[in-house]
Design the sequence.
DNA sequence: GCATATAGTATCAAGAATGATACCGTGGAA
DNA sequence: TTCCACGGTATCATTCTTGATACTATATGC
């Protein structure tokens, strides 16, 4: 988060929920985390996995998650460069969340996607 | 979502994750859903639960979630008006996600908040 | 000498999300 | 007669987020 969209300070009952979601609500974060669940990936590997994500955004999201302690960045002093991203221990603790999201999506994706091959809101 | 921040159409492997999170990434949505887990609430009850949320935003988020089929809006023909919000059946299926978020937040909230009773960034 | 691959960065622009504030109708209570 | 509660809406402004595009350094292979 460039600047916390979900505040981390108030503590109404929904606070913890807010806190947790605040860490994964970047446009690509959940997807990145999901892919990292399967193992370490290099920058360009991530780019290939997360299509349509510009390098700027990818760097952005990775840096934010690194700052949040969710992922680890390992740089190899090589040329051409080699940088590996992986889940930190903390990041791994998000696995239940990610799996719950995945499960829900798998179960309900038909609702707003391709029940009959196209989305109703899709003009084509 | 005024306009889907998380696209609902691509289908890279992280797709379902994206789809699920797309429905709850409004600034207040997860919190609203969390409170509705405990039962039906009226508009102003929600306002009291979700502090700092302007009526405009509350309406906004509620309408979006209604459009997404997550919540149900029941209007009573009374004066003064009475409107009740509750989780739809679909909304209820999000409970595992919400609980996972809550569990994570509860376990890790100390990381970025009040490890010693107050936030260091809190002026008071 | 030249192109290639890697892991980014810089700059600018657009678009989306959120906030602040004021306002609405109505029926009942004071 | 005036005020309040309820469930919002309207309008404007601001801030946050995201995208597009071009660009960098350097060792290696051709």
Sequence:
């Amino acid at each position: 988060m460039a600047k916390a969209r979900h505040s981390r300070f108030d503590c109404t009952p929904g606070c913890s929920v807010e806190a947790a979601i605040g860490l994964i609500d970047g446009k690509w974060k959940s997807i990145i985390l999901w892919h990292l669940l399967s193992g370490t990936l290099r920058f360009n590997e991530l780019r290939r996995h997360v299509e349509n994500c510009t390098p700027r955004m990818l760097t952005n999201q990775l840096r934010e998650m690194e700052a949040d302690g969710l992922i680890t960045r390992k740089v190899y002093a090589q040329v051409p460069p080699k940088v590996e991203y992986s889940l930190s221990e903390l990041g791994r603790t998000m696995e239940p969340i990610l799996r719950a999201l995945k499960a829900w999506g798998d179960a309900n994706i038909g609702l707003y996607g391709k029940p009959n091959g196209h989305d109703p809101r899709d003009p084509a």
